[in-house]
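Input for the complex:
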Amino acid sequence: MPAGDVIDVFDRVQVPEKLADHLRTVELVDHHVHGVFNEPVDRAGFEESINEGSTDPIPGFMTQFDSPLGLSLRRWCAPLLGLDAFADADTYWKRRTELTPGELADVFLPPARVARWVVDTGFKGDLISTPQRLTELSGAPCSEILRLERLAEDLLEAGTAAEAFPEAFRAALTAAAANPEIVGTKTIAAYRTGFDIDWSRPSDTQVVEHARALAARPSTRVDSPVLIAFGVHEAAERQLPIQVHVGFGDRDLDLQRTDPLLLLPLLRTMVPVPVLLLHCYPFHRQAGYLAQAFDHVNFDVGLGINYLGVRSTALVAEAMETAPFAKQLYSSDAFGPPELHLLGSVLWRRAMGLELGGWIHRGDCSVEDAIRIVDMIGVHNARRVYGL
Amino acid sequence: MPAGDVIDVFDRVQVPEKLADHLRTVELVDHHVHGVFNEPVDRAGFEESINEGSTDPIPGFMTQFDSPLGLSLRRWCAPLLGLDAFADADTYWKRRTELTPGELADVFLPPARVARWVVDTGFKGDLISTPQRLTELSGAPCSEILRLERLAEDLLEAGTAAEAFPEAFRAALTAAAANPEIVGTKTIAAYRTGFDIDWSRPSDTQVVEHARALAARPSTRVDSPVLIAFGVHEAAERQLPIQVHVGFGDRDLDLQRTDPLLLLPLLRTMVPVPVLLLHCYPFHRQAGYLAQAFDHVNFDVGLGINYLGVRSTALVAEAMETAPFAKQLYSSDAFGPPELHLLGSVLWRRAMGLELGGWIHRGDCSVEDAIRIVDMIGVHNARRVYGL
Amino acid sequence: MPAGDVIDVFDRVQVPEKLADHLRTVELVDHHVHGVFNEPVDRAGFEESINEGSTDPIPGFMTQFDSPLGLSLRRWCAPLLGLDAFADADTYWKRRTELTPGELADVFLPPARVARWVVDTGFKGDLISTPQRLTELSGAPCSEILRLERLAEDLLEAGTAAEAFPEAFRAALTAAAANPEIVGTKTIAAYRTGFDIDWSRPSDTQVVEHARALAARPSTRVDSPVLIAFGVHEAAERQLPIQVHVGFGDRDLDLQRTDPLLLLPLLRTMVPVPVLLLHCYPFHRQAGYLAQAFDHVNFDVGLGINYLGVRSTALVAEAMETAPFAKQLYSSDAFGPPELHLLGSVLWRRAMGLELGGWIHRGDCSVEDAIRIVDMIGVHNARRVYGL
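Predicted:
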């Protein structure tokens, strides 16, 4: 990317120059992300795509632009569309509609300066770009994450008999572990059962029984604690890293039942493959505690970074409390508008610079240490965890 | 109010002047407040009235002036009594005793610059001023909130037969909905049952049964989940906004059972009238999440603003994380000393100026957007929600 | 201590000079602390001793020096070993190995400027120094805390018959209450049962039954809610202050079951002796609430101060929200390396200066009030609570 394309994420704030230079340009691993929209969306669809919690249309009395995320979007994305920073919502929207999805990706993906996307392909896969397309659009390679519940559903929908389900699931995971493009797995137990379940490893007999019950239902949506625990333990046995959706998400989940502390029974007893606690807001302090307490536990504060906008500085700061710096990763959890792929990166760089810059300024950290912390969280930890 | 009466809430701090000017003078809607004391209180009574959590006298080894709220009171209220800022507790108290309740109201209410009080009249109604008296004292009109549990108790105490209770309750709510002075309702389920109850809509048969059981007890204190859920659903059916006490309150409540996430089963299934999550500390991040996830959910961080004193800046900042700006409201939750009606306003204005001023200073927000955010939270959202 | 030994905890930050002078030199009561290591430790042992949560060796891919605590240790402790601030981990370790445990204590204990250590002797008592030795090393007197579960275990291990257990326990507590060196007790219910137990006072019959069941087991590890509640109520009846481990600790505990709000049933009904909620992170806001709500409840944010390192400033700030200033205490909860005894003190002084200095700077507090708050939390409250 030409030097002119480096966004000055420290415009109007003071950050020690060496740290600022590094943060402006370091190429990140975005360890949990989705594709960009393949097709144009209308304004209602766009506004819904920048509201994580709701599953309804945005009501008439408001616009989602009037939110911390919307404000940051107007601040950082409008200039990339040739508009003034803080262009109003209508102006932003009008300009955006003049560009195709591919052009929008061209505008927003490269300045995110992401060296590798680790893509979760498990959700609404046909609305958004494949990893291959994301690589074409961004110029950066992708690795893939296999969603465990999706795998189970695919097997059952393909007609796998309940009796054959455990072996078929294991075979698929073994194949995934041998596939260099797949670097880990993910569970959305948060959405399906909450974390307050029996996490002990089920027997095949139990698994067959639950698979049979599921196959008899109109939908194969996996919401059986037995099938979910089965998936996690099988992935662990194959040394596959396991991403876990934690906390912040849409209102289908019972947020209080996604407190990561409820995972303690699992974390204490599982085969200790890398566990990646994703998002975690507002339980990020609990997640940091777990990352300190268990060698195999790591976490991020993705998704929250985008949704908190300017306040992501506080979130990023709170995420550097008890966890060793080797146990935190960067992610955007962007899904849909490529603005989100960019914003995650811009807001994280900026927040790290403001927080670590403050540490340096007050004599609490050296510049070299700050840069090392940035590299661990932004790049190296993901490489180690996923073997990239 | 003469210009001279505008309190300089930004004394000694730097806030962009246009925003500062607006925040000093904008007339707020205090959407959840109580009256002021009608009679003089002694010092013990005063100190108890500035401690929210305890229900005991303040012990001899301390004074409640030595708290964040006490410190802010000495900072902001002492000068209005003609004392130096930070006058000591004894000096403050001595001066305060020289004024009648009416004179104290004259001192503290007008500079709060509140355009309308939305008054909860359900608690200790005879110790404190009526809405009519609050209007006389402050010059600002009042609207009223009907407490649902109080209504049920009033009906039963007036001898309503259990069999007639459902209809009588509905009739009273219908009358309230037609009364322009009553703009909403409130539930104190937090104090009576906690939020981990069955929120489904009960049948009249169930309601009658619970009303009968209650009528047979020496006290008519409503603590039946069935009667509470009944009240909420009936209010919703009549399109009445519903305030919900959440979090911070006195020690009679089980604070952990007032986590607003426990309201999810209600929020997902109720008729979607405006729900106002009140106070919310220390669950304000959870409340903000709900306000993003549900179109009909709104929240405030009143009460906490006063009790955190100087630290209210952090609370106000944390309240601007995930919720759209259209979903937060201002309140003081003042009760008793008119200092609290003033302090809520002063501390909120100051905190908003410090936080938003920081956003502007670092280029994260325009001045115009900051002013718009102030107006939404401080004025417009309340007008929309209650139809004022 | 010669003036030259005063650490400038405000190096490179601006704090009002009078407050800074006071904070640099005030002699603290460290109301919850353990001894220092009696013997040299190897590097693995040292790294484990600066990780609170884990019970495993530090894995090969990281060093615990790369954590907030490690960073603060390199910042504040390296210079006391004659190294540059931020000396790297290997350099630090090499220099440290040149000193005996006694020499390390000589380096780190006196500049902590602690006037009195209140020592919990209940854990790993033979690896670390006795109170007597801590006094020799530091020059400061010690008081002692009796661990209730340890007392029960000692009695049973000494062969006390189950039938005699209640009386023997009471007699031991009565003796402790008469012993001027013992100023309080402690419960580790957090580790043994969690707080969601029946806290009502058990009958002697129940206690005997549980003691008998325990005596019949291979280990006398007290994990019976009945025996734990018995210990707490007996201590309270003898007017002994009761420290309660809350929150942050190693992964043996179910952190979510150590939310101090779960203590409400106990706090509401017990004989109101001083209760000291220890550590509390990440539930410190809940702890502050309880300290406001109950005259007999106090709290600290020890342990967390060390483990959050530079971020302890935020923790100390959040601990000054709702609680009266008379209800918070200072502690380090240091255990093992004397660096921790020093760091707790340095980080607390620094955090208090930064936070209170900000209050003063913005006109929210007078210098005199800030100094008074420091003295209450750092010295006076502990003296009052324990009768020192």
